[in-house]
Write a structure and sequence with these properties.
43% of the residues lie in helices and 22% in strands. It has 226 residues and is an alpha/beta fold. A seven-stranded mixed sheet has the order 3-2-1-4-5-7-6, sandwiched between helices. β6 and β7 form a beta hairpin. The relative contact order is 0.13.
Length: 226
């Protein structure tokens, strides 16, 4: 009985802590979570990025850069451009900077501590904005996507890549997990409408049904006011 109470008590304490690390990794314990995310999200990121054309001179922003592996991938393709990353977790910023130290030293990458709700960049800065496994946790989806659109250049592209969405093959498992994480869980149509409501055009949604992945792409109109 005592052992069961201890186990229950540990679970009550550890589960919220683990969930908090998923949402916002800390400097020390969070490094392990960031490392595992870098590994587990790599194939998902590669699949998603196949759906967008990246020119070598692009200026790119990765929102919610986490452990920094997506930044590394983007910098490899945009070999004559610059890649910026933002994350609201200091632990993520430090891990991402450590992973991309050489690119930062070369002046090709810059990583800042910031929220998607208030991006520290002028209007019309980026050709491409990426968000991999992060939009679930944005504080205000309708307003935050408008902030992303603000920093996109006319004709620029936003791509959201994720492994959890309503209606996927893993939906029955993911729904309660997303509820525990206090994360947004949208369907294909809801993702499409989210982009369209922000004024993005040419909206496309791709699904990898076998994996349960989703990729949403939208383009800022060429004549859009910034």
């Amino acid at each position: 009985m005592i052992r069961q109470l201890i186990t229950l008590g540990a679970t009550v304490i550890l589960v919220p802590y683990v969930l908090s690390q998923v949402r916002k990794p800390t400097r020390w314990v969070g490094r392990f979570f960031l490392w595992t995310m870098n590994q587990s999200h790599s194939s998902l990121t590669d699949w998603g990025l196949e759906h967008v054309q990246i020119e070598k001179e692009f200026a790119i922003l990765d929102v919610g850069c986490g452990g920094g592996r997506t930044i590394e991938k983007l910098a490899l393709v945009a070999s004559e451009g610059r890649v910026f990353g933002v994350d609201y977790s200091l632990g993520s910023v430090e891990a991402s900077r450590a992973r991309n130290a050489r690119l930062i030293e070369a002046g090709r990458v810059e990583i800042r501590h910031a929220s998607v709700s208030s991006l520290p960049f002028p209007d019309a800065t980026f050709d491409l904005v990426t968000a991999v496994e992060t939009h679930y946790y944005w504080p205000d989806l309708p307003r935050d996507i408008l902030e992303v659109v603000r920093v996109l250049r006319p004709g620029g592209v936003l791509i959201v890549i994720a492994e959890s969405y309503k209606g996927s093959k893993n939906d029955l498992v993911q729904r309660p997990a997303m509820a525990l994480l206090r994360a947004v869980h949208m369907s294909v149509d809801e993702h499409r409408q989210w982009f369209q409501n922000a004024g993005l055009g040419d909206v496309q949604v791709f699904e990898e049904r076998d994996q349960g992945w989703i990729c949403v792409i939208g383009r800022k109109p060429p004549t859009a006011a910034t």
